[in-house]
Amino acid sequence: MTDKPNLHPSIVSMVSLGASIAANHPSMGLCQVSKLRELGIPEHQIDTVIEVARHIRDEAGDKLDAAFDAEAGTPAAEATTGSEAGGCCGPAEPEPEPAADSEGGCCGTTASGQSCC
After folding, report:
1. What phi-psi label fits residue 38: left (phi over 0), alpha (psi between -120 and 50 degrees) or beta?
2. How do the domains of the chain map onto residue ranges?
3. What share of the chain has pLDDT > 70, as a percent?
4. Taking the complete model, does pTM exceed 0.85, yes or no?
């Protein structure tokens, strides 16, 4: 063990929930939702974790699809949708440079206005 403090169990569960959603692992995500409720985490905070995780997962899928479409030359490559139109972390091509500060830059918001960062 180290003398460094551990993360609070609620933080670990929130990270695990977000990662589970992003990785399309429903049983782990549902387990973490139960654990967060047992820990007394308010529903609106659980909802926020779910919303941000889904947004990032969906945006990653949009970017993957856009890259594939562009390389394959499919008709969808000509349509501007999702992150190509400037989603949370900017257009699919070219990738933006990381922001120097924590405000703005590559961080966007979900449909409800929740910050991704």
Report:
1. alpha
2. 9-85
3. 71
4. no
